[in-house]
Design brief:
Elements (H helix, E strand, L loop, with lengths): L1 H27 L1 H24 L9 H4 L18 E16 L4 E13 L13 E3 L12 E4 L1 E6 L7 E5 L4 E13 L11 E10 L7 E5 L6 E3 L8 E15 L3 E14 L2 H18 L10 H24 L9 H38 L8 H10 L5 H24 L7 H5 L3 H11 L3 H25 L1
Parallel strand pairs: 1-9, 1-10
Antiparallel strand pairs: 1-2, 2-7, 3-6, 4-8, 5-7, 6-7, 8-12, 11-12
Protein name: GABA(C) receptor
Membrane topology: Multi-pass membrane protein
Main location: membrane
Amino acid sequence: MILASLLVFFTCIWITLTPNAFAAAEIKKPHQCCSSSMKWTRYSKQETRMRKDDSTKVWPLKYKQLLHIEDHDFAMRPGFGGSPVPVGIDVQVESIDSISEVNMDFTMTFYLRHYWKDERLSFPSKTNKSMTFDHRLIKRIWVPDIFFVHSKRSFIHDTTMENIMLRVHPDGNVLFSARITVSAMCFMDFSRFPLDAQNCSLELESYAYNEEDLMLYWKHGNKSLNTDEHISLSQFFIEEFSASSGFAFYSSTGWYNRLFINFVLRRHIFFFVLQTYFPAMLMVMLSWVSFWIDRRAVPARVSLGITTVLTMSTILSGVSASMPQASYIKAVDVYLWVSSLFVFLSVIEYAAVNYLTTVEERKRFKKTGKISGMYNIDAARAMAFDGCYHDSKTDMDQTSFSLHSEEDSMQGRFTGSPSIDSPWIKRRQPLGGHVGRIIVENNHVIDSYSRILFPIVYITFNLIYWGIYV
């Protein structure tokens, strides 16, 4: 009994002294307690403010429980077994990246937005505010399976995360937006190239759900298609953007709703005027220069004709290399081939002139026994080789001048002035006028007509061509 009484006594003393020891320890560190309490108070105030600003903190439940994702089978469309679910579409075109005539396709970047109602996603809300999610929720709920008809490749941008946004309203209305780049076919008609306008369209359709399950429509009618003001292309300018709708029939699955994004592109002509049309015009005009060159200057006229023909061939091959292998005639082909025909005819014209001149001289030689005209056979042969005119009379004057130069100089010393009829005066006559008179007198009648006929016909062709295609 004594031992038990002592044990109880010491226990009471220990209990009494222990709180005092703890109190003394707390008194030794007053600043640390104050600082920690101040930090805790500041943190609690910030958390309270964040909870007030963030409306999602009001709901203690997770989004899976709030949207009832685990309670429904989202493999089925909304209202399965009943009327088709209406899905509105809204498109904001960001840019048209490229137009390829060779591949006959275009590349476009745009924001594709879907609107539909799924009552399975409705949730209670006192403020009637919507909730926004990123791409991580898309795989857990039902979304429309829209695909692009005649597309070659397409992708959703994923920098820095997938560019997908999902917004759910308390009544179950859903907005699904994605930033997409699509390369699709554009069936182009090049019969008027490069004076053409191309009609391209991007077609949207549901892959699995026909018109009995899903109804696609433009959310805001014609205003559902919007474009940025800064959209521009190097070779085209955009005339119009329009939205339309229709139906597509497949023999095995039935009718489907289809939406169309239509846009008209008109080509800039100035580039092709500088690179194609203007050089072709210059080559045709250059070929007409041969009509003014003496018909006996064979090397000059032949080399000029061959040069213009080869240049036109280079222009033709350059245009064909940048174009698809179309099986029909294009507008630029008509112009270039007609221009090549004019250049080719200028070469044929000189061949006809040379041949007829030779025939005419042979006939005169048979009748008179000598070559008529202002030049003989030796002069004609010399000009055929070096392209320069050799006048026999001038050569004789030059010989006479060399023989009588001393006599004329002596006569000039006594009289004080040279003789008017001396060969020196004849040599001082202007050579340009002499050669011009020779060319006119020896010009063939075909050259005379060609100087007028070729320009008139070519100008008429240009008036008809530009009148039809422009």
